[in-house]
Amino acid sequence: MIIVTLVLSAIVLFLTFIYLQPSWLKNGLTALFGLTLVASLVLIVMNDSQHLGMEKVTTTKTQPLKSAGSSQLDLLLYQSVGTADKNRVYIYKTMTDQKKVSTTKASIKTVNHVKTTTGATKLVTKTTRWQYENNTAKFWFGIANNDKQLIKRQNTFYVKKTWAVLSATQAKKLSALAKQQSATMKVQAKAYVQSTVKAAMVKNPAMTQTQLAQLEKQAAAQYQATAMQKMIKTVKQAN
Fold first, then answer.
1. How far apart are CA 74 and CA 175, in angstroms?
2. Which of 21, 60, 61, 91 is deepest in the core (most CB within 10 A)?
3. Where are the domains of the chain?
4. Any residues with CB less than 8 A from the CB of 125 and at least 6 apart, and which?
5. CA pair distance 145, 47, nearest whole angstrom
6. Tell me: the pLDDT tens digits for 15-55?
């Protein structure tokens, strides 16, 4: 509406100058619509530069975070934007059966953080926008189409210590390395499990079959985790 007021003021001011003879009416209309024109311009500038009639509104959205990888390893992936790795686009999933991965926005208004947690893995997104304070302000300035204009967006990924945060390139190298060492790892895993079980039976010969089976499972998982951490360290050092 403020744009309409500006245009009408300019038109009426022009017509007043052209068609009215010098008189108190002409002087009065000139002053009135001249002030209206200037006031409209000032208000438009203030709305654009200082967000007159608007307020900052922050909303928070929390989503569960699932591994972006297809393997058993929990992964949070990222793609560097630029050559200095100062900005990253993160690649993630919020559902286990999600077919297409989600990505954060590549924007100077978007900031990403990764934090370690002992609780549930999740993505917390805080979005701050300019919104009109009331319907009156929106009526006057809404034509500028700047309602809900983004100010900033902050994504915080909460992951556990067991998660790996890798670039997309590192993830491909890790997958290739795991396939390359698959046969060797199977042999080493078997030997590690046997050694662990043997040591446990020496300490406690009375272990039941159920206890032995549980110990074997734990030993296999421990070896797998240790081996994976070594490979992760290898691909990270390679960059």
1. 13
2. 91
3. 2-50, 56-165, 181-238
4. 60, 61, 62, 63, 153, 154, 155, 156
5. 11
6. 887 877 788 888 888 889 889 999 999 999 999 888 999 99
d(CA 75, CA 67) in angstroms, rounded, equals 5
Segment 57-109, tens digit of pLDDT: 999 999 999 999 766 789 999 998 877 777 899 999 999 888 899 999 988 99
Nearest-angstrom CA–CA distance, 80 and 68 = 16
Residue 204 exposed, middle or buried by CB count within 10 Å (0-12, 13-18, 19+): exposed
Tens digits of residue pLDDT in 142-181: 887 889 999 999 999 999 998 999 998 998 898 888 888 8
Q: Sheet holding 54-64: strands in order across?
A: 54-64, 122-132, 149-159, 110-116
Q: In whole angstroms, what is the distance from residue 188 CA to residue 156 CA?
A: 38
Q: Is 226 helix (H, G, I), strand (E, B) or coil?
A: helix
Task: Name the residue with tokens 């009109």.
Answer: 132
Tokens of 91: 């690649």
d(CA 47, CA 110): 24
Return the residue matching tokens 């900031």.
111
Distance (Å, whole) CA 56 – CA 216: 57
